[in-house]
From TrEMBL:
<feature type="modified residue" description="4-aspartylphosphate">
    <location>
        <position position="55"/>
    </location>
</feature>
<protein>
    <submittedName>
        <fullName>LytTR family two component transcriptional regulator</fullName>
    </submittedName>
</protein>
<dbReference type="GO" id="GO:0000156">
    <property type="term" value="F:phosphorelay response regulator activity"/>
</dbReference>
<dbReference type="InterPro" id="IPR007492">
    <property type="entry name" value="LytTR_DNA-bd_dom"/>
</dbReference>
<keyword id="KW-0597">Phosphoprotein</keyword>
<dbReference type="InterPro" id="IPR001789">
    <property type="entry name" value="Sig_transdc_resp-reg_receiver"/>
</dbReference>
<dbReference type="GO" id="GO:0003677">
    <property type="term" value="F:DNA binding"/>
</dbReference>
<dbReference type="Pfam" id="PF00072">
    <property type="entry name" value="Response_reg"/>
</dbReference>
<dbReference type="InterPro" id="IPR046947">
    <property type="entry name" value="LytR-like"/>
</dbReference>
<dbReference type="Pfam" id="PF04397">
    <property type="entry name" value="LytTR"/>
</dbReference>
<feature type="domain" description="Response regulatory">
    <location>
        <begin position="2"/>
        <end position="115"/>
    </location>
</feature>
<dbReference type="InterPro" id="IPR011006">
    <property type="entry name" value="CheY-like_superfamily"/>
</dbReference>
Amino acid sequence: MRTIIIEDEDLTAEDLALTLKRLEPATHLCARLSSVKEAIAYFENPPEIDIIFSDIQLGDGESFDIFKAVQPQAPIVFCTAYNQYMLEAFQHFGLDYILKPFSDESIHRTLDKYRMLRQTFNKSALDMVNAVDQPAKLPDGRKKSLIVIHGDKIIPIQLQDIALCYIEYENVFVKTHTGKEYIVNKSLEEMEHLLGADFFRVNRQHILKRDTIAFANMTLSRKLVLTLHVEHPIKISVSKEKYHTFIQWLEG
């Protein structure tokens, strides 16, 4: 869950980030913004995000000024010590309205609301995707692209642009050569079948494309530890049982 926090109080922002991580381990904090000016500049070219948690009263204005200036790219949870802003909050793409000081219970309810909204939207979006023509296929019948749902966007990802595929917190993600990540509505086994011979499942969690691999180091236990051309926070290794098959595949 890619998250933005807009909050000008350091302790409150840190407490919220820790609470989100505790209640939803898949939370990734993309940015913490502390002013209207900083947020407007950031959202002019934002990364892919899933949800925004925003204080209303900031040092240089109200956060509503942000979303009057730029189109929000995700649902917003407004967090404030005052209840008089509730109507205006829901006029600005507000998913929820949390009164400070927030509690685990209030954040948990908001996350449940977000998951329900996302599940409902993704199902509707996938129904639309399944209703349109199938994407163009290669001569051997394999698809050339993969459809992913991100927020309100239906995005075709070219298979040749995928660098790796992995599981995290029971969700399956693809990462492109440019470092962009998307959740997919498929199992890793389905992805393994879809991606074809240029990809190899090196372990239970990761499928890699051949040209994603920069080099491999052999450990004392005869495992191969891989270094990639793209940034990835998890160290990826190949078990000794797959060593010979992996080397043959790597040779092409």
